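Hi support team,

I'm filing this because I wasn't sure whether my run with zinc ion finished correctly. The job status page said complete, but I'd like someone to confirm that the output block is well-formed before I use it downstream. Pasting the exact inputs I used:
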Amino acid sequence: MRFLILSDIHANWEALEAVSADAATRGFDLVLCLGDVVGYGPNPNEVAEWVTNHADVVVRGNHDRACTYVGNHDSFHPIAQHSSTWTREQLLPCHSDWLAQLPRGPLQVDNFDLVHGAPDDEDRYLFDSEEAAASIRYAAEQVTFFGHTHVQGGFVARRLHGTTEVSRFHKVPAQLALEWDSLYLLNPGSVGQPRDGDPRAAYCIYEAHKSVAHFYRVDYDIRTAQEKIFEAGLPEELAYRLATGR
Ligand code: ZN
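And here is everything the job wrote out:
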């Protein structure tokens, strides 16, 4: 079984279209989404509709809550608050209702788990190996896919001389063959707002039967996505950061 794993699409239609076209050439059986379908980007309805129609399993992200009335956004940065208020006004009731009922992770699929932030807390960010080490003990499966940081790659935990060492992939492997005796927290990266210095849209295909994860990056029409952000009156920083991937 080949799983297409998408995260943090953030209402970026151009990025989603490019990822969907690229993934179609590689082939997959099921589509899994790690949350933050909306927020920041200018096409919340189009993206929510695509995910509704194409994704087999979706966990909710913090922006999915904030952009519907199930979550408040008081803790958000002013730019994120502005975008979630705008998104609430734009969302059709059917999409808003769908987002509001998305389940919290972890959700088990096959022999791995899906979360938005971390195994122990859907809102926790896993940026460094210390944070990953504190969280991985809560992982119920050998492999947990997570998002939230918008950084492609993740962490591996190996048993060495009676202790567990957690390390981050500093260079994301194009193809990662999992070792049976290690634990993994894997991030497909963000489709719609990468923050790892590479502005290309990110995604992952996981071949569960072979225990191999493939990490991909795809060019997309950033200019059009930026123009839509300007036209919508969303904060301009949201457009500029698409070009830098920061
Ligand atoms: Zn996000």
